[in-house]
């Protein structure tokens, strides 16, 4: 499967890049050692090398680079929003009459639902007139997408969709984590040059009784020169890695949105506008490898992106830059804003309560949304009542919405749950959650998890203590009736997973190395739970479902109904925690087996789909929305 191959390839790329940077660092250390040795003056041929001095120098240089790199990575470890704010980006307003803001939010939410990732936080660089964007973070749980003011003003909806789909490719393929590491490694090497520069400016001067001051100045000069040489080669490495990833992201965006015109249109406007894609921000160089297009106007040697004309010709063979000259004149006119007729009309079909999706090819869509997923996601979000969508996007009301989703339809249980909300959050929040009940009761079951995903960016803005209090309240509401439905489990598990990953992004979603044979018991427990929860018929149907999954794994796994029982949620939690460390190839096998276990009848119901989404999210594998059997495929 392409997603899992890309994960494995990303790990290899990361290893190669780190190895190249290590080689650069060791070369710098060796050069500084030679200069320190030469600074000591001529030595007799038979004199031994001053090993303590050389070892001390090497360790000092390595410590400076390592500590500076770790410091920079730690500074960015709070998530993609930190990178956005460092550049001066502002969060997209939750409300307002600006059509550009609404359009950007709608496009990001639609692409996120279609890609099967949590909805990221959205930021805007309002003072950047060029067309550009970037995605930052360690994983999809803490991702933030930032676009420039020029992109909001100059791009049509289709063009903006192409740019956002391009950025989601970086989110899905794990490019963001590598980007953060590159920022840290380059910073560590740059610190050497900064230290050398400071010592040369403020360090000792000549005139002393010995030459120690001269030696210090010589070493400082070496740090300055070698540091910038290291940065030079580091930027070469960064640029080469970035160019290959940008080509892949362009191709993925076109495959996803089923049209190249939007992405090509955005690139053409960058080519034709006088502002292009340049950033005026002083941090532009540090994030240059993250951007949608070249933000610095670098030479081909340091270019982080393929040439614009080359990118356009890959989308539209035979493209002639002269063809956009007449259009460019209007694009550069003062006050130009892209005309936008809005999204293409949909022909919505009813959302089925059961048998929502055929299983064939489902596992192959992991991390690789198909063209039909985008309009399907837009259709899903279009069905959500505006009052509920507005509550989900509002940081002040997103908690009310999530708690309201868990309120039981039985009056006595609902009353007990409302008392829990009042005890944890106060009567005002209790009343706000209760006010959403009529609209939530009328919401189709297949729309509940997408709506919760829309609320995630607002929930991330809560303080960590408030996020954990929300998780405690969710757990209390779920347990209020001593019975856990698949939806309750799915909502509680997904929010806990995504909020915790968001609080500790550097620890989330690392590519695993664990072979499936090492966790066979956890795999068996997972398949047993899925088989039990997916069958309402005789017990032999559950056994048959388990066997279907085990066959796909190629393992001789025993099926034990007793291992599930009433505590199926605890069993599933423990199994998923163990299985997240699997290698990409074994995750692919496991998801294929999970699909087989819950779809022995060839279809997946809404409760089964909710469990499958939990499994994929826990394995950090993005699952696109499941298409109804009646949807076009």
Keywords:
mainly alpha, two-stranded antiparallel ribbon, 633 residues, Zincin-like, globular, 60% helix, 25 helices, 4-stranded mixed sheet
Describe this structure in words.
- With 633 residues, the protein is mainly alpha-helical.
- Among the domains are: 2-78 and 179-238, no CATH class; 80-173 and 247-331, Zincin-like (2-Layer Sandwich), CATH 3.30.2010.
- It has 25 helices and 6 strands.
- The protein has helices at 2-39, 51-75, 80-86, 99-115, 149-154, 157-172, 175-202, 212-257, 261-272, 308-315, 325-331, 373-382, 386-393, 398-405, 411-425, 427-435, 437-441, 448-460, 464-478, 486-503, 520-533, 539-553, 568-579, 584-598, 606-618; strands spanning 90-91, 121-125, 133-136, 144-148, 357-358, 603-604.
- It has a 4-stranded mixed beta sheet with strand order 1-2-4-3, sandwiched between helices. Strands 5-6 form a two-stranded antiparallel ribbon.
- A hairpin with a 7-residue loop joins strand 3 (133-136) and strand 4 (144-148).
- Helix 1 (2-39) runs antiparallel to helix 24.
- The longest helix is centred in the middle third of the chain and has 46 residues, at 212-257.
- The model is unreliable at 345-350 and 629-633 (pLDDT under 50).
CATH topology category name of one domain: Zincin-like
What are the segments in which pLDDT stays under 50 over at least 5 consecutive residues?
A: 345-350, 629-633
Please describe the biggest sheet, giving its number of strands, its sense, and whether it closes into a barrel: 4 strands, mixed
The whole-number mean of residue pLDDT values reads: 84
CATH superfamily grouping of one domain: Metalloproteases ("zincins"), catalytic domain
Helix-residue proportion: 55-70%
Helix/strand/pairing class, anyone? mainly alpha
Q: Name the beta content range.
A: under 5%
Number of strands: 6
CATH class of one domain: Alpha Beta
Oligomeric status of the shown chains?
Answer: single chain
Give the C-alpha Rg.
28 Å
From the 3D coordinates, which CATH architecture of one domain would you assign? 2-Layer Sandwich
Separation of the first and last Cα atoms = 19 Å
